[in-house]
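Title: Prediction job returns without error message
Component: structure pipeline
Severity: low
Priority: P3
Assignee: unassigned

Description:
Job completed but the reporter wants confirmation the result is attached to the right record. Sequence as submitted:
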Amino acid sequence: MTSQSQSLDDSDTINGNNNISNNVPVSEYEEKQRLPDLESNQPPHHEPGPPIEDDKYASQGRRDEEEEESGGHGDLTASTSRTATERHLSLELTPSNIQPPQSLAVELPFIFTLCMAQLLAQAGLGQCIAPLHIIGNSFGTQDAGQLSWMPAAYSLTVGTFILIAGRLGDLFGHKIIFVTGFCWYALWSLLAGVSVWSRSIIFFDVCRAFQGMGPAFAVPSAVAIIGRTYPPGRKKSMIFSMFGATAPGGFVVGAVFSSIFAELVWWPWAYFVMAMVCVLVAFAGTITIPATPGAVNLRSEAPLWKIIDAPGAAAGVTGLILVNFAWNQGPVVGWSTVYVYVLLIVGFLFLGLFGWIEVHSDFPLLPTKLFSGSLGFVLACVGLGWSSFGIWLLYLWQILEQIRGHSPLEASAQFSTAAVSGACAAFTTGLILGKVRPSMVMMMAMTAFTVGGILIATVPPHQIYWAQTFVAIVVMPWGMDMSFPAATIILSEALPKEHQGLAASLVNTVINYSISIGLGIAGTVQSQISPGTTEQELLKGCRSAFYVGIGLSGLGVAVAALFVLDENRRHVKERRRGGE
């Protein structure tokens, strides 16, 4: 990943792998990412108290030694720091690790099945955006605010419920959560298609929201399985890059097939076919994915609701939904509507309550330590960049279809180059992550987001496709497919194997929730500046939304620059310490 943390490739101390001796020096970068070390069998020295029975306190290094002595199958014990700044979840991992596939014939179906989670998650977004106006016509609306809810409702639940999906996978096993997620995805894809007979766009939006819960459970489970199966190194980086490369390809696949069905058959068939595919993937998952033991500490006297952090989950999910709903409903009914403000305020209150619960919880969903140092920079960059991408994506399709008059299928064909560009970006990221610092990778990704936004924001309405539009479609996937694999690998290697679900859920929560929030902000700006339907008014409204996206990605560039400076500072400090 970085020059000052090259030992991530040489030592599995952080991930709990025991194949290599723990005598390898640990860099300052690794040390900062590591969960707090605690004394064995004693409460922390800074908080005196009576011995706690059945709790086994050990440092990360001690856990590695115990695991090595038992041949890699010893119990990974847990510890809970009692201070507000060091509280974190550390569950006991069932004494068996996921072994990498031993043959290519087994490994290829395994990786393919896991990559289908990311591909179909993005296909679910593409299948709605491409035929957006055809679907709107079937429900009798072309209102921009109501149409924006179709993709926003999906991204809302994908981003929100990923928050708890990672914890459930860590506790009960990622395989069962993966399969359950695809079964749920299939059910609500079917109901989304059936909703055409209701003639209610609200019911369709509700189905889209429940549909998004499927990939919310499947995607972090797939990422966590990869993280627990492969040790740090080039192969793991390339597999994560392959996983990320399916994102633009998945969107194009969803857009193309939904456009074909919408133009030549009937748009609900896109959802019926999605349901069939999800059932097939769920079945494939039961066959190709090995057993993934959960991390439930059976010796713990804590009730299950406490281990799951039910109060924190309820407060966090409620707050995220209310804030997101208010941002996306404001452009539809107007920000002067009282309940929009009320829901927004109540949502922020719930998020404040969530923060308080996490600080005081023995088993927090989001340990506060994760948001310090490099991980905080990484998540901030991902959120800002992907929020600008969501805006760019939706309003580019508006220009292609509403202003240039292309059919959904023609627009999908023009967008197909994104799949190739995204694949190149993802594999390039996999190759350079071990040689280039994460901060530089994030800087390049944020720059791609910004350049792609500027190219489309300034495009003449009827300019030839091969000028700015083509270039923007080639550039923007580099932002997507450099930031996602990089962030996933950084968090995966910063957390032990029993917390791979947490690592996956954090990245995907930030990505999908930021897309939905970004669409709400852009929709608000568009409705205030140019709510009309003429070509000139549509162009003005789209450009105002693009400017919002440029502002968000530009802020991402600034955060990435701070990340670069911070990483350089720590690198210089580490070199001085090594010289001493």
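Comment from assignee: result matches the submitted record. The chain has three domains: 36-87, 104-294+302-309+361-572, 310-360.
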